[in-house]
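Support request from a user on the community tier.

User writes: "When I paste my structure tokens into the form, the page sometimes reloads and wipes my input. The last time it worked, I copied everything first. Here is what I submitted, just in case something in the input itself triggers the reload:"
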């Protein structure tokens, strides 16, 4: 016997921003992924992904990083300082396919909104 979705639950699911439910009918199972956030901490080690916008020459990199943008999209880093919406770290380039750090090193500041924290290590 199939049951219909409670109208209150249907209304709440329509407000869901995590997953697209527009193509669902009344007889469905929906999995809503758990959102987990990793909080950066000084002296913490992380695997991160840096947006393209932070890896190009810019006024930010000129003023904060002596003109040298981050060397890699993926990096294994240790946070050394945090200031408002910016984080400073020492890092190694990282290859997510082989899960190995590379030989190139970079140290500098990056806006927090330009980072995606993949894992705490």
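"...and here is what came back when it finally went through:"
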């Amino acid at each position: 016997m199939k049951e219909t979705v409670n109208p209150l639950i249907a209304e709440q699911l329509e407000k869901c921003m995590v997953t697209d439910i527009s193509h669902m009918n009344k007889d469905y199972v929906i999995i809503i992924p758990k959102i987990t956030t990793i909080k950066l901490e000084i002296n913490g080690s992380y695997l991160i992904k840096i947006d393209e916008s932070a890896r190009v020459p810019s006024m930010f990199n000129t003023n904060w990083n002596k003109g040298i943008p981050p060397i890699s999209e993926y990096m294994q880093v240790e946070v050394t300082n945090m200031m408002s919406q910016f984080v400073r770290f020492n890092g190694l380039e990282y290859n997510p396919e082989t899960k190995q750090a590379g030989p190139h090193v970079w140290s500098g500041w990056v806006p927090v909104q330009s980072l995606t924290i993949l894992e705490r290590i």
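Agent notes: The reload is a front-end session timeout and is unrelated to the input. The first strand starts at residue 45 and ends at 50. Helices lie at 7-14, 59-64. Escalated to web team.
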